[in-house]
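Re: the multi-chain job from yesterday

Posting the exact lines I submitted so nobody has to dig through the queue logs.
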Amino acid sequence: SQTIHQWPATLVQPVGSPLSLECTVEGTSNPNLYWYRQAAGRGLQLLFYSIGIDQISSEVPQNLSASRPQDRQFILSSKKLLLSDSGFYLCACGSGTSGVKQFFGPGTRLTVL
Amino acid sequence: KQEVTQIPAALSVPEGENLVLNCSFTDSAIYNLQWFRQDPGKGLTSLLLIQSSQREQTSGRLNASLDKSSGRSTLYIAASQPGDSATYLCAVAPPTDSWGKLQFGAGTQVVVTP
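And the result, structure tokens for all chains:
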């Protein structure tokens, strides 16, 4: 079964600083990969999804970007963080087109001060 | 645009009682519906997945039903235990051409008291 690693687990960054969050997946090949953000007391919001290397789609306009340099590696980045970027970031993987369960990583807690 | 709502936002029950968690969605054109559990500060664990052609799924003490026509799903947890305390999230998957982009509800926070 799939295992998803995310790091760092927690991060405190000043406004205007850059960001790089990494997600790697084991136990599957050619997965669909997703980045979600969970703000305090709210549901998950899909930020990016990827169906293959260098194939990234954005769901919401924002100052974040995503990259997929390898089949099982997904990176979330920002050049300049905003206060509103604070939240809990979750990476997930699935396969096929909506037909199967999605598996989630342990998440990264980001606080922007 | 699909909207997913979970009511109540929070629920507290004594140990042994059955839990009933509700999820409603506005667009009945879904591919499947999933229920997840989230412990504080942790990622999500998938509990049950119901395909749009199914009416219910069961796993141990958990049973989830789906009524697409009314846009509702219910998660039942029998004989609750303190270890069931968590936030429960439901999510719907749109039709098959949307690559599994889940739409989540805000969740129901459950506390089971000993």
